[in-house]
UniProtKB/TrEMBL annotation:
InterPro entries: GDP_fucose_pyrophosphorylase. The keyword Nucleotidyltransferase applies. This is Fucose-1-phosphate guanylyltransferase like protein. It comes from Argiope bruennichi (Wasp spider). GO terms for biological process: GDP-L-fucose biosynthetic process. It holds the Pfam family Fucose_pyrophosphorylase.
Length: 328
């Protein structure tokens, strides 16, 4: 069994062209993909029409044009492997469909809906947990629909999760009878990351393109949970770095750094609730509050503590294992 996306082979003449392309265009200012950018100019039926197809920035269109000029006319041969299937889990929708839906991935890899989980309160039947739960502790009175995923979570209060959600690495302490006072909306990604100086919880609508760019002067046109930022923010001077142009949701400093994972989760969910209710005065005050540090997804990639994240998941595994052994 081989788990692979694709393998690409080319000779030294193509290598020289790619090196020439890089030297001419460095430093690269946008992400280029094999299928969307490098393979499009190849073969007998190549057409430049793809250059402006689904582009998120002028920079990407420019890079595609340059690649097309350098690679157009190059022969393309494809080796098709027999008796094979291609399963792509590269997007959030694909991840949900593959783990929760009834598709070819599920047929090829029959997965349990509950993979190594423990319930925070014993002897209570989990009547409304229908989603896919992976390596997690969850309160049995939680509501998790069939189309949602929880992974590496330690949840000790009852929560309501919307449809088509991915909930990852969140931690909530509490008592058996407690319930989180606000639910997680449909189509939401929630993930808590451990940083060098604290914790941050990010949340995005999985239907939105978080890398769609806008010029700095139109920064508040950026969409967040179905609304333009100008609807719920009065100013953008603290949301985007001054030297960041163009900007995208990826660059938006919308998430507070907190001293605990639970605090970061609650603050981010409160923020999402405010966005959905469009309480502009409350949000404007929150984002300009004194000593709180706000960061973006771009910042998180630079500041995350990967070792601490791995240790948390190892400790959670041992905690689940201990609970299972104690209750058996």
């Amino acid at each position: 069994m081989v788990f692979s996306d694709s393998a690409f082979f080319f000779d030294h003449t193509i290598t020289k062209k790619l090196i020439k392309f890089y030297k001419k265009n460095k430093p690269l200012k946008c992400e280029l993909s094999s299928y969307g950018d490098f393979l499009q100019p190849l073969g007998l039926s190549a057409s430049p029409s793809y250059i402006v197809d689904k582009v998120t920035s002028e920079t990407l269109a420019s890079m595609r044009s340059a690649l097309y000029r350098d690679l157009h006319g190059t022969n393309l041969s494809i080796l098709v492997l027999k008796n094979s299937n291609f399963h792509h889990l590269g997007t959030m929708d694909e991840y949900i469909d593959s783990l929760c839906g009834k598709n070819k991935f599920g047929e090829a890899f029959p997965l349990s809906r509950s993979s190594f989980i423990s319930y925070s309160v014993p002897k209570i039947a989990p009547l409304y947990i229908e989603g896919t739960i992976v390596n997690s502790i969850i309160h049995p009175l939680s509501v998790v629909p069939e189309s949602s995923i929880l992974e590496y979570c330690d949840i000790n209060v009852a929560i309501n999760v919307g449809r088509n959600c991915i909930i990852s690495n969140i931690q909530i302490d509490g008592f058996a009878i407690q319930r989180l006072p606000f639910g997680i909306p449909d189509n939401t990604l929630v993930h808590t990351a451990i940083l060098k100086d604290g914790f941050v919880t990010i949340a995005f609508n999985i239907r939105e393109n978080i890398k769609k760019e806008h010029k700095q002067k139109h920064a508040l046109e950026t969409m967040f949970f179905g609304k333009k930022m100008k609807v719920f923010l009065m100013h953008d001077d603290l949301v985007f770095d001054a030297d960041c142009d163009p900007v995208s949701l990826w660059d938006a400093k919308l998430f507070p750094v907190c001293s605990s994972a639970e605090e970061s989760l609650k603050k981010t969910l409160e923020f999402i609730l405010c966005v959905n209710e469009c309480s502009s005065s409350d949000l404007n005050y929150t984002l300009h509050r004194g000593k709180v540090k706000w960061i973006s997804m771009r910042d998180i990639l630079m500041q995350k503590d990967t070792e601490a994240m791995i240790n948390y998941q190892k400790q959670l595994y041992e905690k689940i294992k201990h609970q299972k052994e104690y209750r058996s």
